[in-house]
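Thread: Newbie trying to understand structure tokens

Hi all, I'm a second-year student working on a class project, and my supervisor (Dr. K.) asked me to get a predicted structure for one chain before our next meeting. I've only ever worked with sequences, so writing a 3D structure as a token string is new to me. If someone could post the tokens and maybe explain what I'm looking at, I'd be very grateful. Here's the chain:
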Amino acid sequence: VILSDNTLEFSAVLCDKNTYGVANTTYGLQSTPCKPCQRNLITLQNGSRSYTDCVNPAGYGYSPSGATQCPPGSYAPVGSMQGCVQCPAGRTTDSDPTKQIAITDCYVIPGHGIFVGSNPSPAGPWDPSTSGMNDTTKAML
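---
Reply by user tm_fold:
Sure, no problem. This is what the structure looks like when written as tokens:
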């Protein structure tokens, strides 16, 4: 902003989500606006201070060029900064990234049975053998 005496006035603003501020100290007439995160990366709050605050959203795997939505049959937790993780054999996920967050989002492909260990007979819905297992263990069957 140019003032009436022809001097400049700088003002600091809080960076919005999905951007980060890069300067701790600004000297002279230097302007350092908030910078956007890399492609499809997000910040979890306003006022982020570094590019390291930019993380992958849920259902998006990380790569050096940014984040890419996971294909069906894989998942990625928010902030993992890893590639998409493949579901166990015979499992898939929806194509909606909000349903590709964890291994528990992997479900049995329609038309496939669940086999327990080396048992060649698929477990039926009546099979109580999964009672007492946590969701992660059940998803890995």
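A couple of things are worth pointing out once you decode it. DSSP finds one helix and eight strands in the chain. The first strand starts at residue 19 and ends at 20. Feel free to ask follow-ups in this thread.
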